[in-house]
Amino acid sequence: MKAYERLIKYASFPTASDENNEHCPSTPTQLEFAKALETELRELGLDEVTLDENGYLFATVPAVRGYEDAPVIGFIAHMDVSPEVEDKNVRAHTVKYNGGDVVLNDELNIVMSESEYPILKNYVGKTLVVTDGTTLLGADDKAGIAEIISACEILLADETIPHGKIRIGFTPDEEIGRGADLFDVESFGAKWAYTLDGAMFGEVEYETFNASSLKVEINGKSIHPGAAKDTMINASVVAHEYMSLLPTLERPEHTSGYEGFYHLTHMEGAVEKAVLNFIIRDHDFSKMEYRCDYARRAADELNRKYGNGMVNVEIKESYRNMKEMIVPEWHLIDNAYAAIRTLGGEPISYPVRGGTDGSRLSFMGLPCPNLGTGSHNHHGKMEFACAEAMDDCVMQVIEIAKLYAKK
Ligand SMILES: [Zn+2]
Description:
30% of the residues lie in helices and 22% in strands. By secondary structure, it is of the alpha+beta class.
């Protein structure tokens, strides 16, 4: 079965994760999808198919004879989709793209315009998988799942393709940042892996942000405003002051490329108490440490002014840039590039302004760069995948497996 046909089938499973649910998986629908995938993997004849109680689905394509000593490599994708956009009643279908705008929904007049989505120009003459414009497609990351399973199907059917043991893993709750939390690296048992969770075929991502959360709690001093002179400390005003100490141009809306930022994600305040929540991001770890230090110094400054304990800062690391774990395993990038070139593609790497499950997994002992899936406009109603690009992504898995079987 073609990867795009699998994607259309998988898109009918609603699998949005839910950050307000602390269970794993965070939604029972993900487990239903995992069970359907489990059945499919067994029917295809994969080995060592396991689905644990947290919704992690692992399986094996055994090495072909003579290649049992090749290193075990893994391919990973996530089963949940973004909770930001409706994912129920997805009507995925194909359209032949001949250039120009794509009418997704005649009745509701929903159009994916070429001017707004110039990436479409890469796909003239190709087959696109789209929705009716009212829901997500869920190609992020069901395209990755479809490609990995289609690659397994080809490998299992053709004994002449040399490859070592291949492990595949499908994970829950990536979109809410928990995909790696309960990933059992040891039982997965691969030396290295790739996530298929990117956009364009040819993408190879190995640099992510370093990420921390910053919570600033401000304790004010409330008193009747009529008698407040020289006594009141208004926590909301101090919060504003804290905010003004952070560099104005180092916010998401003013940064790109390798530029890091402080991003205010939430605030609440009264006279007695105020809380500011930020996320801090930077690709460079020493700059990241500087940023965290700066956030503490800003609090120190205000504590000197208003008295100790007035402003409390709590910083928690969320994930680290995987680059430092990938550089010593540079063959991962070389082999991905070589596979893409073999298929006539042009490899491209750029720093991800976010994280992937791979950033966490890389630090858990499973170095794990990210590959494209031939899909675009993730997390939105204009999401689409290209059937031919998905085929390339299937072959990319196979070519990488072949490269790791080279003696
Ligand atoms: Zn994803």
